[in-house]
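Q: Could you fold this chain for me?
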Amino acid sequence: YLYEKDKNVNRAGGENILLEGLSLVDLSSGEKVGGEEVAACIAVCGVFREVLTEPRANVLSMAVVRGVTDDTLRLSMREGICIEILDPFALTEEKARAALLDEKYGYLARSDKERVSGTITVVEAAEGGTVNVDYSFSGK
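A: Sure. Below is the predicted structure, expressed as structure tokens.
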């Protein structure tokens, strides 16, 4: 859990951002994992702080989800919508910024109703270097 930096206490009452999948030691092998998972989460938090000012007001949890070909950084937002950043270790900040600011599909472009449910997906385009954002609404 992220805690309030001015107080050395964990705010378990729901005002924290829960981070999952970020262990520093692989329990199955006992080997230390590289810092790319932590670095990606910190980079995303930096962009969210820049754009949203106080990400703890919007983000409930972040989880690294291991995939067969690519990993995904999944952010569950307070309203209910999820943001999925595919291959979060490439173009990390660009993908985080696009997830929030894309004029058509980004988080800030969503109506209150759309923020209750659905998924914003961010991926690097096949030709590389550019970022594509999509949104799918799963509510009524």
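A (continued): The longest helix spans residues 36-52.
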